[in-house]
Write a structure and sequence with these properties.
- The protein is α+β, with helices and mostly antiparallel strands.
- The chain folds into 6 domains: 100 residues, Rossmann fold, CATH 3.40.50; 148 residues, ATP-grasp fold, B domain (D-amino Acid Aminotransferase, Chain A, domain 1, 2-Layer Sandwich); 70 residues, ATP-grasp fold, A domain (Dna Ligase, domain 1, 2-Layer Sandwich); 131 residues, D-amino Acid Aminotransferase, Chain A, domain 1; 36 residues, no CATH class; 70 residues, OB fold (Dihydrolipoamide Acetyltransferase, E2P).
- The protein is built from 16 helices and 32 strands.
- It has an 8-stranded antiparallel β-sheet with strand order 13-12-9-10-11-14-21-19, with helices on both faces. Strands 3-2-1-4-5 form a 5-stranded parallel β-sheet, sandwiched between helices. It has a 4-stranded antiparallel β-sheet with strand order 25-32-30-27, with no helix packed on it.
């Protein structure tokens, strides 16, 4: 077993790895950026070392710096968590050259499956059906339009190095191709450092089902069932559950195919085979050659620690169980608690957490690294915590999740918590009758209820510039009975009950009406697409803002002529900052 492991990551997954190491009596070294100086993962490790600036490229993606820290602190292994360097074969080889074990799959297995183009080829060779699409990288809009003509629209333009929905854009027709390529490449480059793209047919309403696999370095591969990850926004998962509501025959075929494919490439760690399901057919989508965010629900029903298994396998142990030893029990649901505003089309909500209390009780697990006073920065993913509910059956797990969501208190920022309370109470979720298009439809059909859930100040939500400050949340007693009330007009200082926020309530990506087009969220200006004197039409994309590693379109909600440009590429802007000014409205434009 290893003596000391460096965790090349941050937040809740870094804490998760630290806890697994502690149970194995392995010392840990955390690394942190400027933004993470006061983080829980830095406090929890046996030792913590500063990496560099907040920007990932200068810290959590800096291979040379990470290996230097590992060498100086005497680490004999590195766990990458997920994201950042978790699927970098170059990092695996750099670790090996430095005499340090990478806790994850081999570089060869990663290259075979980590790149989506190579993964599709290997799946075809193993006899696993794949989504129709390109077999090589695409570079130009002309290439993509030719493929779109053959496949039929809509098409998905995807990052080969991608995952988690990042670097994935949909083109509904030839006229949308150029914009989709630009956004997908920019997002992929920002998050993965690799802007290589390919094209697939876009299945509009499939189920997204993934199979958890685990292999060792001695040729053994097993699976730990499947997870339904269909509830997504912007192609990123929000709610996952296991087991999925699919037929036993389909489940068996998918799990057998996942093991067969993993064994064919000598896969030797925890990994996930992702598939799209249409009726009783399934298509290989990609393989994530790392631990998944939602590994928690597989652990819940199998009673198995996947992170400890990763570490033991990397240390050379043979897998200590066979497929028949793995038996699922009960049902588990995970909700990703994100710093986002569903009332504003899931716009990121960076800011400081004013109050933070997590739920507990039977069957509840919270994997997080947040606390009161912690600053959620736009430089990283919006995930605050993962809330998991287990029950003896699906309905018990669902009701436990609703109870836990009601107990979860986060103030100072908006989160997805109120949205999940509505979503999990919807008849479609109760019936387990949903697909990848369900969240968009639910958000559209229940816009008023969602807006009401985020309009009472209880979610710590921001207000538009110039709006009245949010009320303070205070507790009072009347006739020995306790009440929680909202009070307007209290001072907004260190002693105030809640922190006042300044931001935005409108639809994500839609500019404010009136004489200016304003930033709908805090972020970095990635593109300004119009200039002084340009005429714009209502609905035209005029700018791109990068927020929490996502590229967000800013759309004009009225026609007019641009009188002045108030921002430049690279500027950091707050929600409500005017980006462009109209000379005058032109209703006939």
């Amino acid at each position: 077993m290893f003596k000391r492991v460096l965790i090349a990551n941050r937040g809740e997954i870094a804490l998760r790895v630290i806890r697994a190491c502690r149970e194995l009596d392995v010392a840990t070294v955390a690394v942190y950026s400027d933004a993470d100086r006061d983080s829980l993962h830095a406090d929890a490790a046996d030792e913590a070392v500063h990496l560099g600036p907040t920007q990932p490229a200068a810290s959590y993606l800096n291979i040379e710096r990470i290996l230097d820290v590992a060498t100086r602190t005497g680490c004999d292994a590195i766990h990458p968590g997920y994201g950042f360097l978790a699927e970098s074969a170059a990092f695996v080889r750099a670790c090996s050259a430095a005499g340090i074990t990478f806790i994850g799959p081999s570089a060869k297995a990663m290259e075979q499956m980590g790149g989506k183009l190579a993964a599709r080829a290997n799946a075809r060779n193993a006899g696993v059906p794949v989504v129709p699409g390109s077999q090589a990288a695409v570079v130009t809009a002309a290439q993509v339009r030719a493929i779109g003509h053959d496949l039929g629209y809509p098409i998905a333009i995807k990052a080969s190095a991608g995952g988690g929905g990042k670097g994935l854009k949909v083109a509904g027709g030839p006229d949308q191709v150029e914009s989709a390529i630009s956004l997908a490449a920019a997002e992929a480059g920002a998050y993965f450092g690799d802007a290589t793209l390919y094209v697939e047919r876009y299945l509009e309403s499939p189920k997204h089902i993934e199979i958890q696999v685990l292999g060792d370095k001695h040729g053994t591969v097993v699976h730990l069932g499947e997870r339904d990850c269909s509830l997504q926004r912007r192609h990123q998962k929000l709610v996952e559950e296991t087991p999925a509501h699919i037929s036993a025959g389909l489940r068996g075929r998918m799990c057998d195919a996942a093991v067969k494919l993993s064994r064919s490439i000598g896969y030797d760690s925890a990994g996930t085979i992702e598939c799209l399901v249409d009726g009783d057919e399934f298509f290989f989508l990609e393989m994530n050659t790392r631990i998944q965010v939602e590994h928690t629900i597989s652990e819940a029903i199998y009673g198995f620690d996947l992170v400890k298994a990763q570490i033991r396998i990397a240390a050379g142990e043979r897998l200590w169980l066979e497929q028949d030893d793995l038996r699922a029990r009960g049902h588990a649901i995970e909700c990703r608690i994100n710093a986002e505003s569903p009332a504003a089309s899931f716009a990121p909500c960076a800011g400081r957490i004013a109050a933070y209390n997590v739920p507990g009780g039977p069957g509840i697990r919270v994997d997080g690294a947040a606390f009161a006073g912690w600053e959620i920065t736009s430089d990283y993913d919006s995930l605050v915590a993962k809330l998991v509910a287990w029950g003896t059956d699906r309905e018990e797990a669902r009701r436990r999740m609703l109870r836990a969501l009601a107990e979860y208190q986060i103030e100072g920022i908006q989160t997805t918590i109120p949205f999940y309370s509505l979503l999990l109470s919807d008849p479609a979720f109760v019936r387990a009758d949903y697909s990848t298009s369900t969240v968009d439809g639910f958000a559209r059909d229940h816009r008023a209820a969602i807006a009401a859930a985020y309009d009472d100040g209880s979610a710590g939500g921001p207000q538009p510039p110039g709006a009245e400050a949010q009320p303070a949340r205070v507790v009072v007693e009347l006739d020995d009975k306790r009440y929680r009330v909202s009070v307007y007009g209290l001072p907004n200082g260190p002693d105030a009950p809640t922190r006042r926020m300044a931001a935005y309530h409108g639809r994500k990506g839609t500019a404010h009406g009136g004489p200016a087009i304003a930033a709908p969220m805090h972020g970095i200006v990635a593109e300004i697409r119009v200039g002084q004197g340009d005429a714009v039409s209502s609905g035209q994309v005029v700018a791109i803002i990068e927020a929490m590693k996502m590229m967000n379109e800013v759309i004009a909600n009225m026609p007019g002529t641009i009188a002045a440009v108030n921002a430049k590429v690279g500027d950091t802007v707050e929600a409500g900052t005017p980006l462009l000014f109209f000379a005058e409205a032109s209703p006939g434009l």
